[in-house]
Amino acid sequence: MVWVLLALCLLCYFFIAGDFGLYQMWHQGREKKALQREIEALRRENAELEARILRLKNDLDYIEKLAREEYGMVKKGETLYRIQPQPQK
Question: DSSP per residue over the chain, as a string?
């Protein structure tokens, strides 16, 4: 009887907590879902970057907008006004 009880306990242990037990399967399922979300986010980011590359290659208005906004560039004959905030007293 003791051997049967011991075998049953070992079987339950391996079924629940072993390398292929319920806990490991649950944990791997959660990890898989997290990785799938990360992959989807990276795919969206990749698509956005590819669209930006196409615009940089083909859209002169977009290039001009970036040059003006990010680098403060102006066309010949234009005047750039920068408004500086007043220092805190």
Answer: -HHHHHHHHHHHHHHHHSTTSHHHHHHHHHHHHHHHHHHHHHHHHHHHHHHHHHHHHH-HHHHHHHHHHHH----TT-----PPPPPP-
